[in-house]
Amino acid sequence: MRVTFRTAYGGSEYLEASSSQMAKARQQVMSGKRVEKASDDPAAMQRSVEGRGEIGALETYSRTADSALAKLTTMDTVLGAVVDKLQQAKVATVSVQGSIATTQQREAAALTLEGIRDALAADLNTEVRGAYVFAGSQATTPPWAKIAGSWTYQGNAAPVAVDIGPGQTVDVALDGQALAQGTDATNVLNELETLIVAVRAGDNPGMAAGTAAIDRAFVRATRAQSSVGVDEQGIDERQLQITSARLSVVTRVSKDEDADLALAISEMNRAQTAYQAALGAIGTASRASLLDYLR
């Protein structure tokens, strides 16, 4: 009987091995994964962990770039509106310069300028996702307020930069004073206040000075818009790079993690056949007697 026991015992080991292989192959077929834990393939698991870290970093950059692009797009639109309003202000002023403009015409021009002033103030106080984009780093404070009859800047000149890639940043807020005032003695909002008075009074030198101030503000606004446009383009290019890099890493991780389904199914069938053969062998061995082996 010792021979029979050894045969059955050996068959049991083979049966267990076949069962384990079949279970492993079935798990790969069901999950689609070849590597789910370190013991499956330590080297592949390490590469997978590193790859997923890269994917996480790229996705963080992508989200930051998306947020930055939303702000820049709004800033671009607002700056375009500022440029348009400054052109309108110049047209309204030029139309009543000289000695032939009537009081009614000057009043109409003054009212137009008042509307433009208020609209410009609203533009310069634009918020995006709860942050004032023309206030420097003072994102929670409206950058422009009328204090004691004078338009006053409440922001600062500190840049607000965000990372959109390794070593690549983009500014998502502007210095509103540099935009509205630059190197002038006063900002364009106060210049418009003075210009409105000059228009109503028919003060041609005052209107000429106001027009010149509008021209300088126009140059500042167009330069700012151009700079924002360059940053928008840079983000678009960076997003394409992120998408390409992420696809490359995902492909690399997939090669380490994912199962070859055709191979896994073949392995599962082979293990099942071996399992059935082991069962048959054990069954046959268990029916044999010592006399069978002595024949």
Give keywords:
two-stranded antiparallel ribbon; mainly alpha; f41 fragment of flagellin, N-terminal domain; 295 residues
- CATH class (first level) name of the largest domain: Mainly Alpha
- Count up the domains: 2
- CATH homologous superfamily heading of the largest domain: f41 fragment of flagellin, N-terminal domain
Mean of the pLDDT scores? Answer: 82
CATH architecture of the largest domain: Up-down Bundle
What is the CATH topology of the largest domain? f41 fragment of flagellin, N-terminal domain
Overall, the morphology is: rod-shaped
The end-to-end distance, rounded to whole angstroms, is: 14 Å
Helix content: over 70%
Q: Poorly predicted ranges (pLDDT <50, ≥5 residues)?
A: 1-9
Describe the structure.
The protein is mainly alpha-helical. The chain folds into 2 domains: 2-52 and 259-294; 74-251, f41 fragment of flagellin, N-terminal domain, CATH 1.20.1330.10. It is 71% helix and 7% strand. It has helices spanning 2-31, 42-94, 103-124, 176-180, 188-201, 204-257, 261-287, 290-294, and strands spanning 127-128, 131-132, 144-147, 150-153, 161-165, 168-171. The protein has a two-stranded antiparallel ribbon. The chain has a two-stranded antiparallel ribbon with strand order 3-4. Strands 5-6 form a two-stranded antiparallel sheet. A hairpin with a 2-residue loop joins strand 3 (144-147) and strand 4 (150-153). Helix 2 (42-94) packs antiparallel against helix 3. It starts with a helix and ends with a helix. The model is unreliable at 1-9 (pLDDT under 50).
